[in-house]
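so ive been stuck on this for like two days lol. basically i have the seq below and the ligand is adenosine-5'-triphosphate, smiles is in there too. i just want the complex predicted, nothing fancy, no docking runs or whatever. if the output looks off dont worry ill sanity check it later, just need somthing to start from for the group meeting slides
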Amino acid sequence: SPSNTGESTDKKTLNFGAMSSVDVIPMVIANEKGFYKEEGLDINLQIFKSAQDRDAAFQAGSLDGIIGDEVAICLYQNADFDVKILGNTDGDFMLVAGAQSGIKSMKDIKGKKVAISEKTVIENTLDVLLEKNSLTPEDVVKTVIPAMPTRLEMLRTNNVDAALLPEPFSTLAIKDGGILLGSAGSLSTFPSVTAFTQQAIDAKSDEIKAFYRAYDKAVDYINNTPVSEFEDIIIKAVGYPEDMKGQIVLPKLRKNTLPAESEIQAVIDWAKKKGIIQKDLNPKDMTYDINVK
Amino acid sequence: MLEINNLSVTYNSNKNKVKALGPVSMEIKEGEIYAIIGPSGCGKSTLLNVLSGIIQNYEGKVLLNNEVLNPKRHSIGFIPQNFGLFPWKTVEKNYMLSLDIKKKAIDRNIADRIDYVLDKLNIQSLKDRYPNELSGGQKQRVSIARSFIMNPDLLLMDEPFSALDALTREEAQELFIGLWNQYKITTLFVTHSIEEAIFMGKKIVIISHCPGTIVKTIDNPLFNTEDLREKEDYLKLSSYLRGIIKKGWTL
Amino acid sequence: MLEINNLSVTYNSNKNKVKALGPVSMEIKEGEIYAIIGPSGCGKSTLLNVLSGIIQNYEGKVLLNNEVLNPKRHSIGFIPQNFGLFPWKTVEKNYMLSLDIKKKAIDRNIADRIDYVLDKLNIQSLKDRYPNELSGGQKQRVSIARSFIMNPDLLLMDEPFSALDALTREEAQELFIGLWNQYKITTLFVTHSIEEAIFMGKKIVIISHCPGTIVKTIDNPLFNTEDLREKEDYLKLSSYLRGIIKKGWTL
Amino acid sequence: MKKAIKKISIFLQGFLMINILWYLLAYVVKLRVLPSPIEVYLNIGQYSENLYANVLASLYRVAAGIGISLILGVSIGLLMAYSRLWNKILNPFVYFSYPVPKTALLPIIMLLFGLGDVSKIMIIVLILVFQIIVSVRDAVLNIPSDTYGPIKSLGASIFQRFAHVTIPAILPELLTSIRLSIGTALSILFFAEGYGTQKGIGYFILDAWVRIDYKGMYLGIIVLSILGFMLFIAIDILEETLCKWK
Amino acid sequence: MKKAIKKISIFLQGFLMINILWYLLAYVVKLRVLPSPIEVYLNIGQYSENLYANVLASLYRVAAGIGISLILGVSIGLLMAYSRLWNKILNPFVYFSYPVPKTALLPIIMLLFGLGDVSKIMIIVLILVFQIIVSVRDAVLNIPSDTYGPIKSLGASIFQRFAHVTIPAILPELLTSIRLSIGTALSILFFAEGYGTQKGIGYFILDAWVRIDYKGMYLGIIVLSILGFMLFIAIDILEETLCKWK
Ligand SMILES: Nc1ncnc2c1ncn2[C@@H]1O[C@H](COP(=O)(O)OP(=O)(O)OP(=O)(O)O)[C@@H](O)[C@H]1O
Ligand SMILES: Nc1ncnc2c1ncn2[C@@H]1O[C@H](COP(=O)(O)OP(=O)(O)OP(=O)(O)O)[C@@H](O)[C@H]1O
Ligand SMILES: [Mg+2]
Ligand SMILES: [Mg+2]
């Protein structure tokens, strides 16, 4: 494979943004372990505390790419913002019932209060989980709590009966006696993706290729190294609570791959039905194969 | 009748005590009008504030019509230097304030009195204005109206005309004396002007430097004399008073 | 010498024009002191504001020492009613302001003059205080110091003593006249007090109702007389002036 | 009314100027985050009925928040002004609470008051009440003591002094403080309406932001500004009615 | 210094009282979101060096934001006070911008100024500058015109009038307006430090929140309050030095 290492011709900085969540671990490791440098890539990795800030920066042109989700990419495309999915990440979203909610399985969730964030992959995952269990979205009371720490806290204090949470919040909820009712991963969907603007793909394709090569290296490293060796790095960069030290379990990560078209189509249909998007989108137009190999 | 017996006042400000007045003893018969003059800071306003019930922390005794002075029981008119009108009340609400607070019903008698006072002071037409829309002289007249309408047992005035210019001042003084002659309300007023004291005070009380005590009380035969300032006696009396002032308010 | 020729002033406020003064013509010889009296609102302050260069929008001609009056070229002292001290400057900075603005170096001459003036007015010890820490009389003296230190071509005073009480006022008048006799600065002052006009004005200018014009200019033989108020002539002159005032500032 | 009409005209001028500037800026940067005002206004139809309900919901929260803050703030402010003891006790508390970033307390407020309107109103109250307390207390203490002279000499009761002097004397400051509160309360809607609700102009803006619907978002901002302005005008009219003497 | 010392003592009392109240509330509600103050202070050690750098970073942003707002606000405020024309032009603009929720403009600010310190400082400026403009303009217009009399009669130049009268006369209002600005600027750190940085006390609080590290979060809030208070004291000392005459 043609590596750009050594060719020092006007390298551009790649600006990449993500929320502090589990999916960003490979990027953080690649940065810390120097994998980007090895690929000759100069990266500016921005970690945001809220999705809105990330979106604002992305839209304002301060970022070339982000970790987002399929719903967000639909929204971008719907708003004529040409963003392409270039890969999948292994972030998962879990539906956890509170210890005192009386919910033991998906059957008990009817009529209960579920904390989500609206018009996001979180709501999408909840709806998909409900439908898989022969329920409809109307069967639960959706309670909007955008901030994830607050969503977790409302679950812990029984203000809501269940909550849809990403890692590490879901693990914390389960540690407190919460019951895992289902997850996106259990349905073999991986709604969390990496995406770049078409503009960046056109102007910085070499850099993006280098980015994914480093990503794959990081995946190899993570899969083959005990967590304890890089635990501190991710605690610092990702926003894991300090007291999870020694208890972090990472899923087996996959090297970069594009999500299945059917999966994207399902998200498009959902968003269309919800009225979140108006345009007729085509999964083919939403992905781009950068072809690293 | 107002009786003041060994009155003295001490202010407590920031831990140190300031004796501001006293001891002062005097007696004002019903229907008299007294002028008080004294150096700046000698306690003239303090005295009026005691008599008007604003300062309640004093030593000595103050009796009005043989009862301990109490603004809730007695009816006391008070005209401060800045006229004491409330800017948020119309002229009418301002001069009716006394009746309002005392919750007096307006009977035939009072209504006549109101008409007479307003007419004399020529402020009928200002009824609906706010004090800010009045000249100094007009404000003064409204303030006088407020006190005369309530027919007080005692009227107190603290430099009532000093904020007015020369001409307006003489007009206001004459209006006041006109009304006063009608109602003969027991009155005590503070002034910085010898002229005013002679023109308006049946008796003139001279107070010493702080803490103020009474230096002398003078009978004033020139009270309410027309063309006062052109009389020979005026010159004498005023130069006598001036002499006391020059000697630092001592005899 | 100050020459005022057909001066009139019109204010433009909210679209309607108010003629506030004029036409006024007068001449003040060097080393003279003129008192101006007139009814409230007749334009006295307006006249002083023109002469001090504060109002520059006037009709007519004003010449000082044969040049068109201009505060940048001329040296003009101005004492407003509230003394015009800057609360954020110490007393020293306040009285040195005139020299500061005119960027005058302090030579032997000026230093002597400063010493003399401060000494006369007895404010040496107040140097480092702020105006808020002074009594009215002290403020007045600092304001007078400011003007005398600069040795102005023209001194203007707008009711300079009216904010002081009777006693302080007489003291201040005497201090002022003492200094004035030393330096004989051409002076024009506005007053509401007939007494003050007679005591301090070599000539007394009477102004009519708004828009003010000159009703009469009177030579005052009583200027700077000791024990003025006890003189027979004083009574005559003051009752003459009072007569004019009573007739509504007309002859 | 004169003052109100003048303000409306100033507002309209400002509105026009901002739109022109906005148009030019949008024209220059040509980015989706900054649609031109024309695009925004052309799209107004699709939101219109929706907007109405949102404005009402926010108005209710803002009004309730300001109302409660006023009741609490005025009472505590008066208490502190009248009683030296209470002033001594409460002053340090007020003083310390002033710079505490109340928005950081959102999680606690949600836990204590739930996800409903109560917690939204409470956060508005928490932010406003301290400044109202301080301004009422200072306004009362700033009434020159001799103002009470004439009414005291008439033997007025505490209550009469209060009704005839204290209240009218502090009214202008109180209205100014309400005016400032309105601005603050509206900008707090952003936090308050971010959770537990599907109604409110703050929600409308946040929702549009999430959906990357910048036209909707700017429309919401404009509506919020106009709402703020209308509340300002309402206060102006109230002031002209209550403070005729000014 | 007397004023400052008095304020420090009031602050300490307030601090104590808040902590006692906090302790009681924590004891009653027994929730993880509300750890007791004792727990918070016991954990201070693990953050200490970290906190220092964070405070410095925030201080820089706040100082720069307030500084720029002052320069802009004072110049524009003076311009509007001195020139009727400019007042006519800028007044509607200022008036309309006042109630616009500036935090909603984050996308534009990022667009125009990127993700770095400049955009953080700019959002502070955007929120503060209007209130400084208004307060400077009003302060200048409120100087009674006869204040200038004595200095005009001395033939002072515009610049001299400015230095001897205008500036000292508006100084107290300016300092009050800076004091208010500090409170606002600190609470804006919450937005401003949520992106593009890993330093700052706002970031520290947000980060602790996301980590569900409530002890750290409250520590941050306390530190922010103390920082605010110290800036207040600094202004007090400045005021006592510059406004000796008060
Ligand atoms: N509230 C107060 N606390 C402490 N001292 C006071 C207070 N009010 C007045 N004083 C002092 O008491 C003395 C008498 O004051 P008062 O106002 O009665 O004088 P006055 O004769 O009315 O003076 P003026 O002629 O200037 O009006 C003064 O020395 C004054 O400084
Ligand atoms: N800035 C202004 N705009 C419009 N009219 C004014 C202005 N200043 C003064 N006037 C009017 O001009 C007239 C003269 O005012 P001026 O202040 O000169 O009177 P004055 O003789 O000094 O009065 P007083 O004795 O009360 O000080 C008055 O009728 C006043 O209302
Ligand atoms: Mg007094
Ligand atoms: Mg005048």
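Residues 84-152 of chain B form one domain. The mean pLDDT of chain B is 89.
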